[in-house]
Amino acid sequence: MLAACADKPEAPPLPLREATVDFHGTHQAGVATPAQASLNLIGFNLKDGADEKAVMRLMRLWTEDARRLASGQNPLGSLEPEMTAWPANLTFTCGFGEGLFRAAGLEKPEWLHDIPAMTRDRLDPKWGQTDLVLQICCDDPVMGAWAMRHMTRAGVDYVETAWVQQGFVNAHGATPEGETPRNLFGQVDGTVNPYTEEEFDEQVWIPSGPFAGGTSLVVRRIAMNLDEWELLDRRSREESVGRTLDTGAPLTGGDEFSEPDFEARDEYGLPVIDRNSHMARAREVGTKILRRPYNYNLPPEPGSGELSNAGLVFMSYQRDPDESFTPMLKHLDEVDRLNEWITHIGSAVYYIVPGVGESDYWGQSLLEA
């Protein structure tokens, strides 16, 4: 009896239950935000006949629902308030494709067009361009999935879902805060990224003009041949990238963020870092992007003989992809030792609209201009 009356141990803390990311601001959340554990990236196409007024109605509706969900509140009209109780750093990021600008009769950014075809591309139309995109990221997969369902249902009168790309990185608390995530090749992925506000202002955010406060998003779906990759010994894997697998440091030494020495030679007079390694080729161009990749891992295609169907939902944010992303991609397409094990199978480009105030909606400055 006494044992039964003993004080029960305190319940462990639930750090994600009330964890939120501010929905309001000059820029949308989900870009500079540290990558959450799960991604639901949804490509939508406008329904036939949708015009500027329809887009405005959709944006008002979506923005208000996203505003409530991101703060842990139940959206108006929702019958599932229990599902909004743990926001877990939920963010929404909305982008406009070229088709939306055309349907709404708006002038688009000059760079908003398909990424030029690359010789190694094997693009599948099912992962292609759409009129809109919603990036929904969260540290809880149930919250993220429910938020995706709600937003899709809310927009059903205006848009149709073209594709959904889901991904994941390390769970909250599994790795030290701020540590660079790893892809399924075991490599750190996203070392050379902007980190300070000044770097984001220089590399990511559009500074002026009608698109100020926004940015561009390039989505590349990249299949990774894990079966062939895993035949390599550890040294060969590191040489293809130019970094060590354990710490992500350049092969010339230091830590993950040390500058590589491309002039260093080994005892035989050969470059320590292969000039055709992924890191060396990416750095030669000199352009800067924000990498925000997520892993995907799906069942193998029937009859493929492969053990997995894995890869990256590679998302790149930058001011102007024509000046930064595309030159880098062309350079890597020409020569990159990593190309033997990766294939680009999807591509899309979007204008990420600016952030909003407490009474604004996504894209308002464009749609009401």
Automatic annotation (TrEMBL):
<dbReference type="Pfam" id="PF04261">
    <property type="entry name" value="Dyp_perox_N"/>
</dbReference>
<keyword id="KW-0560">Oxidoreductase</keyword>
<dbReference type="InterPro" id="IPR006314">
    <property type="entry name" value="Dyp_peroxidase"/>
</dbReference>
<dbReference type="GO" id="GO:0046872">
    <property type="term" value="F:metal ion binding"/>
</dbReference>
<keyword id="KW-0732">Signal</keyword>
<keyword id="KW-0575">Peroxidase</keyword>
<keyword id="KW-0349">Heme</keyword>
<keyword id="KW-0408">Iron</keyword>
<protein>
    <submittedName>
        <fullName>Iron-dependent peroxidase, protein</fullName>
        <ecNumber>1.11.1.-</ecNumber>
    </submittedName>
</protein>
<keyword id="KW-0479">Metal-binding</keyword>
<dbReference type="GO" id="GO:0005829">
    <property type="term" value="C:cytosol"/>
</dbReference>
<feature type="region of interest" description="Disordered">
    <location>
        <begin position="239"/>
        <end position="262"/>
    </location>
</feature>
<dbReference type="GO" id="GO:0020037">
    <property type="term" value="F:heme binding"/>
</dbReference>
<dbReference type="InterPro" id="IPR048327">
    <property type="entry name" value="Dyp_perox_N"/>
</dbReference>
<comment type="similarity">
    <text>Belongs to the DyP-type peroxidase family.</text>
</comment>
<dbReference type="InterPro" id="IPR011008">
    <property type="entry name" value="Dimeric_a/b-barrel"/>
</dbReference>
<dbReference type="InterPro" id="IPR048328">
    <property type="entry name" value="Dyp_perox_C"/>
</dbReference>
<feature type="domain" description="Dyp-type peroxidase N-terminal">
    <location>
        <begin position="28"/>
        <end position="168"/>
    </location>
</feature>
<dbReference type="GO" id="GO:0004601">
    <property type="term" value="F:peroxidase activity"/>
</dbReference>
<dbReference type="Pfam" id="PF20628">
    <property type="entry name" value="Dyp_perox_C"/>
</dbReference>
<feature type="domain" description="Dyp-type peroxidase C-terminal">
    <location>
        <begin position="180"/>
        <end position="355"/>
    </location>
</feature>
